[in-house]
Amino acid sequence: xxxxxxxxxxxxQPGGSLRLSCAASGSIFSINTMGWYRQAPGxxxxxxxxxxxxxxxxxxxxxxxxxxxxxxxxxxTVYLQMNSLKPEDTAVYYCNADMATIYYRxxxxxxxxxxTLVTVSS
Length: 122
Known about the structure:
Elements: E1 2-7, E2 10-12, E3 18-26, E4 28-39, E5 46-51, E6 57-59, E7 67-72, E8 77-82, E9 91-101, E10 109-112, E11 116-120
Parallel strand pairs: 2-11
Antiparallel strand pairs: 1-3, 3-8, 4-5, 4-9, 5-6, 7-8, 9-10, 9-11
């Protein structure tokens, strides 16, 4: 009934930039925190950045100063601007959101996107 669809991944050289987008759709009543996670081969999934409905943000130490998370509440979309990319940023990036549907307005569910691959390599 609700889903997240990511876009914007791809191959980029070290030092380059990419912008990820994640759009929520379906029977949405409300969205609280939205975030980006990543999972590199052989590693656990980790939080990259998150943003609340009031636009408060937090970042993993490894991306502070290089990545910026933002959201457009009118479009139910969250973005991740990634600059000065490093090979160690290579991972599948997943969008995450806490959403309530129009059917259960007081029940927030954690929803995940399908992931988009970011490869940083020369």
